[in-house]
Amino acid sequence: MKSVSQIRKRTALIFLIPVTIILLSSALYPLISTLYLSLTDAELENFLNPNYVGFINYIENYEGMWYGVLADSLFWNSVRNTLVFTIFSISLEVVLGISFALIMLIENKLKWFVRAAVLIPWAIPTIVSARMFEWMLQDQFGIFNYMLIGLGILEQGKAWTTDPQTSMIVIIIIDAWKTSPFVAILVYAGLKALPNEVLEAGKVDGTNGITQFYYIIFPLILPAIAVAIVFRGLDALRVFDLIYLINAGSKDIMSMTVYARREMFEYSHFGFGAAASTMLTLIIGVIAVIFIQRTRLHKLDEME
Amino acid sequence: MADINVNTVNKYFGDVHVIKDISLDIKSQSFTVLVGPSGCGKSTMLRMIAGLEDINSGTISIDGQVVNDLPPKQRNIAMVFQSYALYPHMTVFDNMAFGLKLEKRSKDEINERVNEAARILQIEDYLLRKPKQLSGGQRQRVAIGRAITRKPKVFLFDEPLSNLDAALRVQMRVELAKLHNELDATMIYVTHDQTEAMTLADDIVVLDTGIVSQKGSPLELYDKPNNMFVGGFIGSPKMNFMPSKILSKSADSTEVDIMGMSKISVSKLSASSSEGDAVTLGIRPEHLVVNGDADGSWESKVFVVEKLGDVSYLYLEKDGEPLVAETEGHSEIKVGDTVKVGFPAGRCQLFDSSGQAFK
């Protein structure tokens, strides 16, 4: 006779088989093949029969000069751009997301309108929102420049998306506009789950709007915010579509993914691009692990 | 110190009229229990005193000051909630210190007051734990401690013991009574449990569908219920009600016929009733005389016997009317036996057809 716990363990294993197969074939296989590709000299002409070359795609000293992804200043520039984009866009999105969530909480006749209005930017495909902003910010015909000139702030139209000084700011603002709703939904769910009696106990203890948020609401929705930051953080570190659509060639906003794509599919340096992709995966992985450790997100069920 | 006056207060939730012209005077330093079945408006009443619900009309004043438009923190009250409502992210110490911290008290004063409350409630060993590491009874103590540290004039309790198991409930009940003696504060306590009401209260306010059914000391309510609702609500098992008819009235008593079985003369009067009126006779199970002498009696078959050790309850029936009688714990009476139940006239209550008691 098998004990109940043995039967349970076996049942659990059976249920885990399908997802394991899917994960192995959809995540692990591409990961390993990319890793393998990064150790070869694969280009378009020898893609099927590449030679193993070791780590020279990552770093190599050839006649006193350093080569490879890790020696490429453009790669590190793209890492810096990605980190700047991630930190600032997420900060903005968390602040806006919490604000939107608090607004969504207000019970009145307009609440359905407010909720829809908050969610719409997230429902619009990136290609549409990118083009939309591109036109609004266009130097000659864009409404944004038109308004600034009308107000006397600018003498003549500015090319916001291509100007090296403003392009990163523009990308961050578009991303915040687009994805704050996602943060808002998660925070809204967190707010809805707050125990009402705890808030009332706070009122009896003497909280006002500000102290209630600071001492009670914020600490209690922190787990929801941390989850939102992890999701948004992983998305932001892999950002591709928005930057590619706004200005694919500009090194001022080039992200790690745009860099890897250019090496692979524009220059056909598959081995080199694969090395860049591997570095990208590594960097994201390290950041994610540090963040999750720091926020103790893996112990979420022990928090309350 | 802190009298509470509720003056013709009304409360509507949408179209539902939950509090109907209630007026109450609650004496300073008294322990008043609001009791009633679910939906009678007792919690709403408490929340209006706390300032967590708006008042639609009428006034509530604490210590002579009308508080209708004051937020809870300016009413000098503390409240203990049914779900404890502890701040889950704060330690026990911080939970109890939170109100003082918001009042910007000094560190020393906060320490002193929290430790004092912890000592009274015997939770000194848990001060650094989080609420989720505590048992239900310990959480309840912390919730009470949080109320004590602020030294309010008025304590409000919203069914504070209903989430505890039976043994702990009895223990906490005794501690609350002790606490009331120590603190000299006005306490208002909401419960649906009439035992809690009887044991804790100086004054009980029985609420029924948004009106005060009766207010008085526990024994007043027990001995002289104003109406059938209070008679039935206070006491366990509940009072027996039997359809009866007035046979004759005299200067100091009313003679009734109980279901055509027995005649009895009760020294209670009602000016509005007359001979031949249908009335209800009420008598508590503990006042029925089993197999003994009484002013009136009848015989009945026993359907169920509940043996509680100290007493036994006999479930009887006569012409479809149930009747519960109390007898001694080691009674020999068995199911199927026929017993003689007697009615001592001095213990009988009479209620007219609208449920109002004869005086």
Summed up:
Chain A has helices at residues 4-37, 73-104, 111-123, 126-136, 143-150, 167-192, 196-205, 209-237, 241-247, 256-266, 270-295, and strands spanning 60-62, 65-67. Chain A has 304 residues and is mainly alpha-helical. Chain A folds into two domains: 1-37, no CATH class; 69-303, MetI-like fold (Orthogonal Bundle).
In CATH, what is the class of the largest domain in chain A?
Answer: Mainly Alpha
The strands making up the biggest β-sheet of chain A line up spatially as 1-2
β-sheet strand percentage of chain A: under 5%
What is the global morphology of chain A? flat
Mean pLDDT of chain A: 90
How many structural domains can be distinguished in the coordinates of chain B?
Answer: 2
Spans where pLDDT lies below 50 across 5 or more residues of chain A:
none
Question: How is this structure best described in words?
Answer:
The complex is a heterodimer of chains A (304) and B (359). With 304 residues, chain A is mostly helical. Chain A folds into two domains: 1-37, no CATH class; 69-303, MetI-like fold (Orthogonal Bundle). In chain A, 68% of the residues lie in helices and 2% in strands. Chain A contains eleven helices and two strands, in the order αββαααααααααα. Chain A has helices spanning 4-37, 73-104, 111-123, 126-136, 143-150, 167-192, 196-205, 209-237, 241-247, 256-266, 270-295; strands at 60-62, 65-67. In chain A, a hairpin with a 2-residue loop joins strand 1 and strand 2. In chain A, helix 1 (4-37) crosses helix 11, helix 6 (167-192) crosses helix 8 and helix 8 packs antiparallel against helix 11 (270-295). Chain A starts with a helix and ends in a 9-residue tail after the last helix. Chain B is α+β, with helices and mostly antiparallel strands. Chain B folds into two domains: 4-233, P-loop containing nucleotide triphosphate hydrolases (Rossmann fold, 3-Layer(aba) Sandwich); 240-351, Nucleic acid-binding proteins (OB fold (Dihydrolipoamide Acetyltransferase, E2P), Beta Barrel), CATH 2.40.50. In chain B, 24% of the residues lie in helices and 35% in strands. Chain B contains eight helices and 20 strands. In chain B, the strands form four sheets. A six-stranded mixed β-sheet of chain B has the order 6-7-8-3-9-10, with helices on both faces. A five-stranded antiparallel β-sheet of chain B has the order 13-12-11-14-20. In chain B, strands 15-19-16-17-18 form a five-stranded antiparallel β-sheet, with no helix packed on it. In chain B, a hairpin with a 4-residue loop joins strand 11 and strand 12 (254-258). The radius of gyration of chain B is 24 Å and the shape is globular. The model of chain B has no long low-confidence stretch (mean pLDDT 91). Chain A binds chain B through residues 195, 197-198, 200-207, 211, 215-216, 219-220, 303-304, and chain B through 50-52, 71-73, 77-79, 81-83, 85-89, 98-99, 102-103, 130-132, 146, 150.
